[in-house]
Amino acid sequence: MQSYAFSKDSGLYSFNIIGDDAYLAYVGPHAFDGCSALEEFIDFSRIEHISEYAFKGCASLTGDINLSSIDYIGDNAFNGCSALHGVKFGRSMLDAVVGEDMLYGCTAIETIDCSEMEYFEL
């Protein structure tokens, strides 16, 4: 998905990819930045690259996100996503690049699941 694709779209409530084999592998910089009404983003599990500020300010984005295929997360990717409850990282995180302040302002986070990882260092 290209940079700024839905940036500042205050009317976007849900995002889903339709089709048995369809998935989103790349989310560009600021793609959903400021989508304050976005509550549901279907299937994070196949995304490999989330650019900087991709979901910044998506304060209504709720639930848990499964980042099991991720290999890159840019700076401030989920900054201000204050309704997120949890994050799950998969084995792919072993060699992943994780930007600064990825979860800054995510004040409702209750769980960070790293159970599939063999090695984790903060």
Summarize the structure in words.
The protein is an all-beta fold and 122 residues long. The protein has a single domain, classed as Leucine-rich repeat, LRR (right-handed beta-alpha superhelix) (Alpha-Beta Horseshoe). It is built from no helices and 9 strands. A 4-stranded parallel β-sheet has the order 2-4-6-8, with no helix packed on it. Strands 5-7-9 form a 3-stranded parallel β-sheet, with no helix packed on it. It is globular and about 40 Å long.
Draw up the topology in text.
Elements: E1 14-15, E2 26-27, E3 40-41, E4 49-50, E5 63-67, E6 72-73, E7 84-89, E8 97-98, E9 111-113
Parallel strand pairs: 1-3, 2-4, 4-6, 5-7, 6-8, 7-9
Unreliable spans = none
| Amino- and carboxy-terminal Cα gap | 30 Å
Strand fraction: 15-25%
What is the SS-derived class? mainly beta
Widest beta sheet: strand line-up: 2-4-6-8
Outline the biggest β-sheet.
4 strands, parallel
CATH topology: Leucine-rich repeat, LRR (right-handed beta-alpha superhelix)
Average pLDDT across residues? 90
Helical residue percent?
under 10%
